[in-house]
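Notebook p. 47: complex prediction with thiamine diphosphate.
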Amino acid sequence: MPTQRRLANAIRALAMDAVEAAASGHPGMPMGMADAATALFTRHLKHDPGEPGWPDRDRFVLSAGHGSMLIYALLHLTGYLRPTIDDIRNFRQLSSPCAGHPENFMLDGVETTTGPLGQGLATAVGMAIAERHLNSVYGDELVDHRTWVIAGDGCLMEGINHEAAGLAGHLKLGRLIVLWDDNRITIDGSTELSRNEDVMARHAAMGWHTVECDGMDGAKVSKALDEAVSDERPSLIRCKTIIGYGAPTKQGTAATHGAALGADEIALARKELGWSDEAFVIPDDVAKGWREAGARSVKARAEWYRRLNDSDKKDEFLARIAGEVDSGWLDDHLGVLLADPPKVATRKASEMALEAINSAIPATIGGSADLTGSNNTKTKAQVALDSSNYGGRYIYYGIREFGMAAAMNGMALHGGVVPYGGTFLVFTDYCRPAIRLSALQNARVIYVMSHDSIGLGEDGPTHQPVEHLQSLRLIPNLTVYRPADAVETAECWAAALASEGPSVLALSRQNLAPVRTAAAAENLSARGAYRLRPASAARKVILLATGSEVEIAVEIAARLEEQGIGADVVSMPSTDRFDAQDAAWREDILPDVSNRQILRVSIEAGTTIGWERYTGLHGLRFGLDRFGASAPAPDLYRHFGLTADAITPKILEKLNP
Ligand SMILES: Cc1ncc(C[n+]2csc(CCOP(=O)(O)OP(=O)(O)O)c2C)c(N)n1
Ligand SMILES: [Mg+2]
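Predicted complex, structure tokens below:
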């Protein structure tokens, strides 16, 4: 068996060679952390390259995602089908799954996309939460694994670290173990340029176990890992390392952080490391040593399957891990609503839907960033998920919006749970980097964002979203919903639960009149936009509205019809869903936008920018292209001209100039 150092040198060689071939990438971090990562992957990590998705595997997160060659080397060497050595040769090229940063959708074994520093660690917190929760539901026989993270100086400097570490410490997530690559170097140079806090003391103060080791000595790292495993608190292991270790003239400097070392330096490094093989060649003894290490948990996996097969919860467990959710609650719930349509805020309607959802779907885990009573995210039977009861299904995230969103990504990616969590829509800004990663990773996270417009009233412009709906709609693969009443809210919930990716539900604070009062043949909200009230007279106008403005559109249509002007009211709970409909549906609801015979009018209490897409430039757009103000909601709607009284004359003027 080769020494641990020789195994680690295979990582170093692959990292420098791949970055050199691509003339792009980050050799320093993989070369500095090679010994620590080798210790973790050859002695501690429970995984099986033969079945990367084995549900009870440990999760490994490379939070310092720029060091992507580290994880590519580890996956290749331990025997995963991909990346192949050719994939690694093509590092950072279009044809290769070895993308610049690790992408969870490109390679098995990459549990989460990383690169935006700090988020990997915060995502891992969610994975560790999901593990403890499922452990409390299914027991040690089926769920008993750890979450390991490699984080850099950057990950620990980012603000998200404070939220994530605070949450992990509070929840006593002892199965979360973070290895800190303490190389004292970032891009600009020494960490002394920008940091003098005591990182270890800070984590200790947040309830973490902390331990230091020589990160260049695999045996010492291994000892620290054992200590971390035996401690009940989340662990931070400070691995003192040398960035770019092995590159004789550049190691220990920022020069190795993010640039190819150059042929001369690589030749010297090969000498220094005693690595005589050519680029991309792994000698047989090293390849064999790594493969053996990769197969360490084959037996554990076989035993796990035996336990699964013996378990009376087998089918239920597998269905949960597969992400299946019941959809039968919707029809019953709609039946109740239609029997006596309630005039409620859509945040309240969401709570009513959640009562049905949470009793039908055991996988949901709710929460809020300290706005439980405002977001209406907690249902009656939900009890807190905390360190004394991981089986609870409601998380008090505290005032940690970003931490909540990143943790929800981790929970969704872990599988077996469906996370939803709330704050005010305006604070999607505080969650936005994680919402973007929900979308990129196609993680089924449901964001419950209440207080969705000036309709929240007195709290004023700091709390009133203006640009938020449209800016969220800009994020690819994120579905934004803004339901108009209780029926649409239930439909939007059903659509969000049924989809594979993330959703944002934008919900009103203020009560809304029911607009959907009759049963429909299908989930109309899932169509994105549909004709709520067809024109009676010859159609001259199409009114497009979302959420709280739909009832205004209904009133305007009635006034136009009184004058013999036919007006459709189209409710548009989701522009994203509408854009995804087939041409026939889109053409029927919104006939050719360039058709000037029909005036299209949009009404949404937010920015009008972007609504041209549906109204055409010749249409009319009503909204708010400035910040709101502090006043009771009805006064604000009047003040900003978002009433039937204000809008109807403008439409008439446009029709008859
Ligand atoms: C949120 C975020 N900000 C900035 C960057 C750009 N960036 C990538 S690596 C890096 C320096 C990180 O330093 P460290 O974690 O110490 O990594 P090392 O240089 O030790 O490899 C920066 C600023 C990023 N990836 N994510
Ligand atoms: Mg560093």
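Notes: The first strand starts at residue 59 and ends at 62. The chain has a mean pLDDT of 98.
Next step: compare against the earlier run before touching the bench.
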